[in-house]
Amino acid sequence: MAKADDEIDPVDKTNRSRWATRKLTVKSGGLKRISLMDRIHKSTGSTEKKRHSDGSQSTEDNTQYDSATATDQNEQSDAKSTTSSSTDDGEGRQVYFNLPLPTGLKDDEGTPIRTYARNKIRTAKYTPLSFVPKNLWFQFHNIANIFFLFMVILVIFPIFGGVNPGLNAVPLIFILAVTAVKDAIEDYRRTILDNELNNAPVHRLVGWNNVNVTEDNVSLWRRIKKATSRNMAALWHLIQGIWKKDDKKDMLEPSGDPRPSVETKATRRESMLSPRTDRTSYVSAYEDIQMTPVTSPLPPHSPAPQQKDFLEVTERPTSGQSYNPDELETIARVKGDLINHEVTPTGNARFHKDHWKNLQVGDFVRLYNDDELPADIIVLATSDEDGACYVETKNLDGETNLKVRQALRCGRTLKHAKDCERAQFFIESEPPQPNLYKYNGAIKWDQMMSHGPKEMSEPITIDNMLLRGCNLRNTDWVLGIVMFTGHDTKIMMNAGITPSKRARIARELNFNVVCNFGILGVLCLLCAIVNGVSWAKSDASTAWFDYGSVGGTPGMTGFITFWAALINFQNFVPISLYISLEIVRTLQAIFIYSDVEMYYDKIDYPCVPKSWNISDDLGQIEYIFSDKTGTLTQNVMEFKKATINGQPYGEAYTEAQAGMQKRLGIDVVKEAAKAREQIAAGKIHALEGLRKIHNNPYLHDENVTFIAPDFVDDLQGESGEEQKEANAHFMLALALCHTVIAEHSPGDPPKIEFKAQSPDEAALVSTARDMGFTVLAQTSDGIKLNVMGEEKHYPILNTIEFNSSRKRMSAIVKMPDGRIILFCKGADSIIYSRLKRGEQAELRKTTAEHLEMFAREGLRTLCIAQRVLPEQEYLEWRKEHDKAATAMQDREEKLELVADKIEQELTLLGGTAIEDRLQDGVPDTIELLGRAGIKLWVLTGDKVETAINIGFSCNLLNNDMELINLKLEEDESGKTTDEVFLSQIEEELDKHLRTFGITGSDDDLLHARKNHEPPAPTHALVIDGFTLRWVLHDGLKQKFLLLCKQCASVLCCRVSPAQKASVVSMVKNGLDVMTLSIGDGANDVAMIQEADVGVGIAGVEGRQAVMSADYAIGQFRFLQRLVLVHGRWSYRRMAEAIANFFYKNMVWCLSILWFQCFCNFDITYLYEYTYIILFNLIFTSVPPIVIGVLDQDVSDAVSLAVPQLYRRGIERLEWTQHKFWMYMIDGAYQSVMSFFITYLTFAPTSAVTANGLDISDRYRLGAYVAHQSVITINLYILINTYRWDWLTLLIIAVSDLLIFFWTGVYTTSTYASTFYGAAPQIYGEASFWACLIATPIISLAPRYAVKALRKVFIPRDVDIIREQVAMGKFDQTEKEDTNEVTAKSSSSHSSESSRHKRHKQFASVDEDLRPIYPPSVATQSVIGHNAHSQNGSDGTNYTRHEPSLDVPVIQPVDPAPEPPVRPSYERVRPSYDRMRASMDRVRMSYEMSNDFTSAAMLSRFESTRTGPDPDPSQQPVQSEGIVSRIRRRTRGKSFKAAFAHHKDNNIHEHE
Fold first, then answer.
1. Other beta carbons within 10 Å of 915
2. pTM above 0.90, yes or no
3. Of 410, 539, 965, 995, which one's alpha carbon is 20 to 30 angstroms from that of 559?
4. How high is the pLDDT of residue 1142?
């Protein structure tokens, strides 16, 4: 707390005003996902009691959750966002510390009534004991497996004609075994991850009594399970030990060793990316973080003299954190202290290294830097004297920017284990609920006062809680208490169970299988009836047959015949189909994994298929939903340009600039090469100049991103002292106004890296370092800088941090000359509205134009300003600030009001431009996907303006699009009713729907579901998360969906993970289309799981998305190959393979049926039994698999060159019911030909053999039919195959020859019985060879004729492309692809050195938490977005009063020179000129009808806070031409050359 007395030293310690770094909720807040706890509790139910946490043993605790108290976990979208937990029965929980439990919380035996979820997490489905029964249970949920099992059972009974039950069961056993092995491997991997997590180390307080939990009471069944698991694990480790001789240390040290208390230093992690690295050293002189010790049972040691004040805590401290009896007894002066100093510690308590799984609610834990949080923990104390700690939440929301969390004020005196023993308090907490950004609780204790104890309390919010899954960063240690464990933690309540996805073809296949069941049933019934009737006839020869019917009566005979026919015709539902499809999908996954074109060498990551059974779904994707940050962008922020004192600096060539030039028809490849040369030369010059000024040891060439040789020249004074001073002061402002933490990396030369809450802020401070203004360290009262080789200390009096509503941050600094200066940086609209009126008119206009131009290049801009404060004014303001900081109610609002008072009357210093670089190849990939007919939507948590800016950079948006902006104004007071919001947005939707001539009716939806054509590129839609919450209402969802379908691009901004999933579900189910979601963070998991196909990007940071995805890739650009190449191939291959499978079984089975016509349908076998077995095993099994794995209609290069071929998959034309029935008809026709050609050859005459015997028996007839059927089937498959390479032809030939080989070998054995000697007999017949030649030709003729006629007269797109390939029109495709890669690389890299990693890569950044940097409103000058959402202005329909800077101009005769803005030398600025020449035209109608942000608009912002708008007529509109004003500031001859290719008559200069 700041002091409230009148005399304040202005050079006191830094006071930092922190606001909540979380997303705020309102009454109508965003949707949240439904909790899955109910299902989890059902699977983990148990009524056993917990252990008493009083020992130091690291035992494995497997106590199950008490399912008796389970309640429904449906979330409520209300202001409180509190969802009752199953363990808390919908009520809050009370946790006591060193206090006895109240009677109401204990049973008759004195044990706690309430039980809590264990901290052990298990995501695996099976245990060694349950695997076999549970896996079989899951597998027999498949009705096909039940049918096949039934067939095996039928064959057991000889009466049904079964031959070999064991052999008949082999295929089913094979399928079950293969599936079980696959499930076992997947579950084993999950078990390994579970064990790694559950056995991770954490320091837990032992040796004290946690009254909230009781002893374990492990049941007999659990003991059996644990013993089985231990034995299986021991067996596995024994096997591993044979292969691995080197033993690894266990994660935990022996339990008897406590953590020493004296001179303890924290062990640094090996890497930030390995949060679970073992702490193998407890005391080491080589480790570098001084830690606060814990009480040790070892003999006491005296601390080192320099550590005495830091280590010792007196029995009755008189610090500001505890009660001092000498002070006056006023509430304002009493500081909370949880320690009861009258209690004598036992000395038994100590922090012991234990497993995560052993943590219980109510445990004290001590965490260290880089530790991962094992549970939801309330922070009591930290190593920071202000109680601050930093956490990285990438596992929760995909963001790696650091967030500040605060220790409770009353707990900051807790340092040692003995303090924890004496702390007496209890916590009232809300029940577990899944809202990541909200928590309500209160800590209560008795405070000792002069007249006795007084009950006190302090509220607990989300800012005092560390959530499981986060990582502690830049904080030596944290002491806290466990509040929620296991499945009660917020991350687990938000974690969805990965759904079991089935390919669309597999789902549609069920209908065809049912159809075949129907056909099979009809055939069996036909056979039963006919056979029964035939035996019932008394005038037929069968009546005199000696043996009679098999059933004794005609009815029983028909019944038996039905089941015998079911066995004989079972291949109508082929088990071989399911086996073969598993093989096909597995091989497809292997090929995808093995594709080197999708291998990302930077992180050594190929494309990894996580789900092997949905590869064909990749070929039917119509909608792709993508995250932005870390998915489309690299989230590597690089400082590129600046404008200082009206002078633009910086050389860069951005993706957006390349896109603008490409639309103008400029050769981007040549332009990029030219730009690279200029930038490389400029970098050399700049580095030489920097080292001439000062030999900066922290300057590393590869890290420099601000390439500005003219800046360096001006810093040397070449343009005069004024500009030199302006540049130096600007960089000093960047080095002082921030909240980054400097980390020194050892080496020669040394390195300094910056950890920041925002990557933008790190980029700004890094550039200041490169220019010679290096932040060396943060001190307790300021910042230590190295300014041009001279170390200086700047006291920071106050830091007013960023939040989403302020959009700025400020630092109040005492300068060496005694001045007090407030430095402020933030959004340009915010800064301009706070500038001092009547000053810097020309500078403001010039800076605004520069910022607008930077924004056109896709750069993210902000302004820097300052204010010199009189000391008396600062002292008075500080009093108000301290008063607001000590307020117990509405503290944040009061602090913001006080900050607003001081951040006025600012003086503009300049602006910066940072590039959030797109990933390589993103624009090309999006363009290619668009040409394929795929619609891409961006669902991001970032701001609307940022998303739009990136949309232009990556070709999602262009200047010809009309932007539909759906936005409801949020009413945080909660007075606006739901009906009002719904009516407002419905009115907007109806208005926009009328534009497209639709109303949103059911008929419109029906038409939309049938229409798969991409919409015209005339409209794009932008919506924020608050508005999205209302359009997803059941009554409006359909209208919103139909409106979105009419738009070429849709950007959903400020959306929560649950809203992302809701949008995906809306499109997937509403339009009945195939969807794909792609993201890189944990906040993308919900939509990845919801989509038909989920793709995770394995970034440098977290892998949360990858763990839940179906496919994992290293970069977004690999998506084009995954979808357009492998997806299209897999879909077409799978559709063809399935159709051919049904066809070949139809030929085989119906041939048997035709034979039954001549034997009264008594199910006499036509084929010898080995033929029946081997038909689907070797004779015809491999050719369909070859189609499913190797067939290619066109090559991968052609697939990418002609992405329109993919549209056939979008329309789902490769697998249709028409195709299925056509193949079935083909099979029926060919079965007739195969049987009756042979029969008609056999029937009229007897065969003449060498020994005079006739061979006209049924097995010889069957051999005839079998040979030609196999030949016909394999040739038919060959006709349906596009690619006839040597491997395909070889497989077809071998499959055909195998039946000859088997017949020849098998019939030489007497085991063949009546079939003995059949091979030489039938092969010696001319009729056999005649049938063998004639039957395939007659059978295949119709299919061949239809194919030939269709390709000639009704060709498909692929047929035309194949002809062009044959003509050689695509011979240069591969070479062109190489050139395109070069161009892509050229346009996406500003210099060769940019290939190196410059700053830490952040996986995701929430704009709410970005301390300094919302994107410039100037970005809207390209797209005309309403600026109200970010500037707070009430103005509407602002019309610019000067010609647009976007409009191309004619180059007139050079005008007379004008006075310069400031002293400067003439110089060429290639990047500036190139951008000015590339600014393309904006659609004027849209520009003039909207709040169109521009440089002129920024000028309007100047007076929004200090007075009325100036008269527009007084602004200099036509006093000078645009070109002259630009030339006056640039004075570069390249300006004229750059304009040579960009002329227009729409603007005339008035000079």
1. 27
2. no
3. 539
4. 92
